[in-house]
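Look over both lines:
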Amino acid sequence: MAHERVLVIEDDPAIVAGLEMNLALEGYQVVSASDGESGLSRVRECEPDVIILDVMLPKRNGLEVLRRIRAENADVPVLIVSARGDETDKVLGLELGADDYISKPFSLGELRARINASLRRKRQRSSERSLDGFNDVRVDYDRRTVSRAGKDVPMTAREFDVLAYFLRSPDRVITRDMLLHAVWKLEFTTQRTVDNFIARLRAKLEPDPDNPRYLVTVRGVGYRFESGGNGSG
């Protein structure tokens, strides 16, 4: 029996009622919100294991909600739901970090299957999450230590948090604002601070810091962790 918490951010009360009843029968704890603003508050309050997010929401649309969620939480699975058949919504949602996309009307069976698949992937990531790395760099999340070629690399707490955020979002474009929200919580700092931290991480971890392969610049946007080490700039 599942015990994970599902947050449903949806403004159609009939859909919410149906999901609450059916997902509760599956053993999930179900929490709901009817607009984008309250949905973001719920994300922070209840720490859901998976989020079902409608695109067309009052107060703040689902794509903007997704952008804010990903700025603060790289891991929680998000399933975008929309009545619109617009391919742009689907592509943008996935680029913003959605794990899956389903169009209305949908069957409860299909939705349950997609939720279960997202949670399985999350559980698998969690079981593998204590150790991570790239090239000759090894990261121990439990001990919060980093080594390179077998030698310890000194890291401040915030440097480690920045590195961990990138490793948990491989090949995803990360804006400076996303990092400021997630790591600094916008505490008296600027986007230039992010650039300085990236430069320090490159100096410690890149084979050639002036031509980075892993922590690469996305011009005019931010940065991306290239898991395959193919990037530069």
Q: What stands out?
A: The chain is about 45% helix and 20% strand. The chain has two domains: 5-128, 131-225.
